[in-house]
From TrEMBL:
Signal peptide: none annotated. Residues 91-214, 295-415 form the Type II secretion system protein GspF domain. It is a multi-pass membrane protein. Belongs to the GSP F family. Pfam families: T2SSF. The keyword Transmembrane helix applies. The chain crosses the membrane at residues 187-213, 244-263, 391-415. It is found in: Cell membrane. This is Type II secretion system protein F. Keywords: Cell membrane, Membrane, Transmembrane, Transmembrane helix.
């Protein structure tokens, strides 16, 4: 029976090599799939080569010491180190640059370990180097050393090991992480000025209601025939009520916030909340565009480095936080698993825009789907920038108009009340 030499990704991210006996290549692929392996390369070898390989494997197994309890799972989490996103990006960039310059993995990690300015990354590099030196795969070592390297990162590292393009895939992953960090920074910056305006408006309103309006009330009531206008009386009543029962409203607001957070964090309610977020007037398009950028970048990285399309879709789904969008990807995975083209599966879900589907279809027709996915990611990244700029352009004038109307109304009522009082005094 023919023998096939394979290199494949294990179910837990490790790279495995070995021989499989099968009647033909198709049967060998099915055997590997039953074992939970995703083949990266599969080559038929001669009978002599297969015999030598098996003999060598047998001798190696006999020479080995009693096995240690060492699996692909990270084991105890108590000794793991947590890293900030900036540290993960720095580690990825440094390592990809050194691997790209020709260094092997262990010397590259040693060089990072000896760097003085890397801080906590030195210990991370040391632990990973020790794991790699003991024969652990790089992707598995990442899992064991730090939870900050998520499942997607470790899977990409395993794909890079299997395909021999670890430096390239780490460089792309660094770019992807920097893109996400920049997006988060832009969102925060976009909300700073509106938040400042809202706080300033609330502060001015509090000054009006608690200081200026009570003083104006005393002035008008002390004047002969002085009478407060209806809107001013309403504002005074509201001010007195809030002053007497402010703690009740504070408790209600805090309780409502805690209740909403508990409802939102409940696993049963997460799909509903994720669907609501996608329909929000301003935030919905931003969330969708961010998902498309992340999905396309991830798919381009995985497919471009030799992972099968179905496995790439599964990893992209695992990296998606929004459960409503993850449901859409599950539908795509099911249809691709049944033999449909990726573009056709996207059409059937009805949740992907036509432009994205067209670009994927072009990649399928030309056989360069990774390049099409990357071009689509760049396009939707530009769309995301436009959405953010549009939100900033709408939020600022809207808040200014609302604050101006609110404060202007109170100022008008106060000035009108003063003029009425003065007119009555002149009449007397």
């Amino acid at each position: 029976m023919p023998s096939f030499n394979y290199k494949a990704l294990g179910a837990k991210g490790g790279v495995q090599t070995g021989l499989v006996d099968a009647g033909d290549r198709s049967e060998a692929l099915k055997l590997l799939e039953r074992r939970g392996l995703q083949p990266v390369s599969l080559q038929q070898v001669s009978a002599e080569t297969a015999a030598r390989t098996k003999e060598k494997a047998t001798k190696t197994a006999k020479k080995k010491a009693p096995p240690r309890a060492k699996t692909d799972e990270p084991g105890e989490n108590t000794g793991q180190l947590k890293l900030k996103r900036a540290d993960v990006v720095l580690f990825t960039e440094e390592l990809s640059d050194m691997l790209g310059a020709g260094l092997q993995l262990e010397p590259a990690l040693r060089a990072m370990e000896n760097r003085q300015e890397l801080g906590s990354l030195k210990e991370v590099a040391q632990r990973i180097r020790n794991e790699v030196r003991d024969g652990t795969n790089f992707s598995v070592a990442l899992k064991r050393v730090s939870p900050s390297f998520g499942p997607l990162y470790c899977s990409l590292a395993a794909a890079g090991e299997a395909s021999g393009a670890l430096d390239t895939i780490l460089k792309r992953q660094a770019h992807y992480l920097k893109t996400l960090a920049e997006l988060q920074s832009r969102l925060i910056l976009a909300m700073i000025y509106p938040a400042f305006l809202i706080l300033a408006g609330i502060g001015v309103s509090v000054v009006f209601v608690t200081i200026l309006i009570p003083q104006l009330t005393q002035l008008i009531e002390s004047a002969p025939g002085g009478k407060l206008p209806g809107p001013i009386r309403l504002m005074v009543a509201v001010s007195d009520h809030m002053g007497a029962y402010w703690y009740v409203y504070l408790i209600l607001i805090v309780a409502a916030g805690l209740f909403f957070k508990a409802w939102k964090d409940n696993e049963d309610n997460r799909p509903t909340w994720d669907r609501i977020k996608l329909k929000l007037p301003l935030a919905g398009p931003v969330i969708s565009s961010r998902f498309f950028v992340q999905f396309l970048e991830t798919m381009a990285n995985l497919v471009g480095n030799g992972l099968p399309l179905l496995r790439a879709l599964e990893l992209s789904r695992d990296a998606t936080q929004n459960l409503a969008l993850r449901t859409s990807l599950n539908e795509v995975i099911d249809q691709v698993g049944d033999g449909r083209a990726l573009s056709k599966a996207m059409v059937r879900t009805g949740n992907f825009p036509p432009l994205l589907i067209d670009m994927v279809a072009v990649g399928e027709q030309t056989g360069k789907i990774d390049q099409s996915l990357r071009r689509a990611a760049e396009r939707y990244d530009r769309e995301l920038n436009k959405d953010l700029n549009r939100i900033m352009a709408l939020i600022m004038p809207t808040i200014l108009i609302v604050m101006a109307m609110m404060i202007g109304t109170m100022a008008y009522l106060m000035i009108n009340a003063i003029f009425n009082t003065i007119s009555k005094l002149n009449a007397h």
